[in-house]
Amino acid sequence: MSLPFILVLAMGVLFACGIYLMLERSLTRVLLGFILLGNGVNLLIVLTAGRGSAPLTDGVDLSTVGMSDPLPQALVLTAIVITFAVTAFLLAMIYRSWRLVRADSLQDDAADLQVAITRIIDSEAEASTEYDDTEFGDEAESPIVGAVDLDQDGRRVDRITAPGPSTTEREDDR
Questions:
Q1: Which DSSP helix (H) or strand (E) runs through 44?
Q2: What tens digit of pLDDT does each residue of 110-133 get?
């Protein structure tokens, strides 16, 4: 096995373990998963950089051929700083949660669940098509007050309360 293959395998394991830990309800496991994911990203950036030589020169060949691109090293340093900052933030959240609740895991709030269920019920009610109303303007089954008269006949036809000739028969009578 070659070294790049082993590093790709290690990167895959870091990503898999990191995502698995981030899906848990425990805040400490979320923190550990984030740290593993950050290390996996750092390894990914290093692997995409190509050969692992010094950023400026290899010491022998002073031309541009002996130099490697310093951008991947700069990106890894930036990723390390960002991972450290988010880790410190997550540690502060975990500490605050522990001080307030004396528990490390997240609990479902009953009021939040009720709001979520109400939103689902409301969205299902809005999506239902109990009536077939394809008319717009003042001739709809439930028109908006002040709706525009789209066919410009000057009258509002109420199909619900006034049984009568169909729309095509009314047009033939004109």
A1: helix 27-48
A2: 888 888 888 887 776 666 555 555
